[in-house]
């Protein structure tokens, strides 16, 4: 590891910041205290701050030299609506809210980079520090874009980073092209005709229609799309009925669809609708089909990914960089940024949970789990990566 020495010395303060944020989690678009902490730290270090993009977003601006070139570095700030089962000193103080995805660590790492870049300014150009709200389902990235992020802060590329449990602590992973899937949801209501369970011929059973639709939908994955394309269609809820001897009037199905390309998503959505409507019609039932596209696929740009890989190698060593990491079917709203600007999103290994202090829960240290905690040993690694990426992308004339 070739970390930035002043950042190593600053690790204890970064840990204090991170653990303070962990103890005070805020949900999407509620990150008032978090954005206050971020803005106060940036101002303390002499960094100009703009607030209000995406409601609770914060943008820090570090300029040096005469170059008009600029890049953006992004960290997400929001927590999840779930209960933490850890009992260590920095566990969540707000029941039903928890930093179970490491956004507290992402914020602290970018603050660490901000502190060093503001002090040393060993680059020529502008580094925009993007502290984004509402990644967890609120599409905060899109909201910041709609509020003029890229018009007010013109940048040639944007970069994001996420800790990744299960990957060795301090190792990096990335790949060109699709790295995370689109996230989409469907809500379907089958409208039949209620009847006595002993006289099903007098009704139209929406449950049987739902079963037929559910079975047919899986043929989209196995028979309609190319076997070389990736897609997951998961029915996660089926709700119908209220009594054992009553055929209900309607049945509801809810679930998600994930793909790596918009073309495959178009196919899946279209076939789902056609099958649902025609199967329902075949049983003399009606169907209400609603399909919501939440986050698009996250697609890394080739040039920026190759550039990021070289910086990773310079910081961590080539043996700790996987430039062909396996993509995940999870989703990330950084995808909206990559639709607007060239850039790259990377994984930083969080380990297997050995870093956790006493008082952690009995569950695994994986994302969106009540026993999760960010690995503070990553703070100088992630911050050093951000610094070296900025300095390499915007080099001073020597």
How would you characterize the overall build of this protein?
Keywords: Hydrolase, Manganese, Metal-binding. GO terms for molecular function: hydrolase activity; metal ion binding. Its cofactor is Mn(2+). α4 packs across α11 and α9 crosses α11. With 398 residues, the chain is of the alpha/beta class. Helix content is 34%, strand content 24%. The chain is elongated. An eight-stranded mixed β-sheet has the order 1-2-4-3-5-16-6-15, sandwiched between helices. The longest helix is centred in the last third of the chain and has 21 residues.
CATH homologous superfamily placement of the largest domain: Zn peptidases
Tally the helices: what do you get? Answer: 11
The figure for the number of domains is 2
Mean pLDDT: 97
The CATH class assignment of the largest domain is Alpha Beta
Rg of Cα set: 24 Å
Total strands = 16
Q: What is the CATH topology classification name of the largest domain?
A: Aminopeptidase
Level-2 CATH architecture of the largest domain: 3-Layer(aba) Sandwich
Q: Can you give the helix content as a percent range?
A: 25-40%
Assign an overall shape. Answer: elongated
- Contiguous low-pLDDT stretches (5 residues minimum) are none
């Amino acid at each position: 590891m070739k970390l930035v020495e002043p950042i190593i010395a600053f690790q204890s303060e970064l840990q204090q910041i991170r653990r303070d944020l962990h103890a005070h989690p805020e949900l999407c678009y509620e990150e008032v205290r978090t954005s206050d902490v971020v803005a106060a730290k940036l101002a303390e270090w002499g960094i100009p701050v703009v607030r209000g993009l995406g409601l609770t977003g914060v943008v820090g601006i570090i300029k040096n030299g005469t170059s008009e070139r600029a890049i953006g570095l992004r960290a997400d700030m929001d927590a999840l609506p779930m209960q933490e089962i850890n009992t260590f000193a920095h566990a969540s103080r707000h029941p039903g809210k928890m930093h179970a995805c490491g956004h507290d660590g992402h914020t602290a790492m970018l603050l660490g980079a901000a502190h060093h870049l503001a002090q040393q300014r060993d680059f020529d150009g502008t580094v925009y520090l993007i502290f984004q709200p509402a990644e967890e389902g609120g599409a905060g990235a899109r909201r910041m874009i709609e509020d003029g992020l890229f018009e007010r802060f013109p940048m040639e590329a944007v970069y994001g980073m996420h800790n990744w449990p299960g990957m060795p602590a301090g190792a990096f992973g990335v790949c060109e092209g699709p790295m995370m899937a689109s996230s989409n949801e469907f809500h379907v209501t089958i409208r039949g005709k209620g009847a006595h369970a002993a006289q099903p011929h007098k009704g139209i059973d929406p449950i049987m229609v739902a079963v037929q639709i559910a079975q047919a939908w899986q043929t989209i994955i196995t028979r309609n799309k190319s076997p070389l394309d990736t897609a997951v269609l998961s029915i996660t809820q089926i709700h119908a009925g209220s009594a054992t001897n009553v055929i209900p009037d309607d049945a509801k199905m809810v679930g998600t669809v994930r793909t790596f390309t918009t073309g495959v998503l178009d196919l899946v959505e279209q076939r789902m609708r056609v099958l649902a409507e025609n199967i329902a019609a075949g049983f003399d039932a009606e169907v209400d089909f609603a399909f919501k596209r939440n986050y698009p696929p996250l697609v890394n740009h080739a040039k920026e990914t190759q550039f990021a890989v070289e910086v990773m190698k310079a910081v961590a060593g080539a043996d700790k960089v996987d430039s062909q990491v396996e993509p995940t079917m999870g989703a990330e709203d950084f995808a909206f940024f990559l639709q607007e600007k060239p850039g790259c999103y990377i994984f930083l290994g969080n380990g297997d949970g050995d870093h956790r202090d006493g008082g952690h829960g009995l569950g695994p240290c994986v994302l969106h789990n009540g026993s999760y905690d960010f690995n503070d040993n990553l703070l100088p690694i992630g911050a050093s990566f951000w610094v070296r990426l900025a300095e390499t992308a915007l080099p001073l004339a020597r």
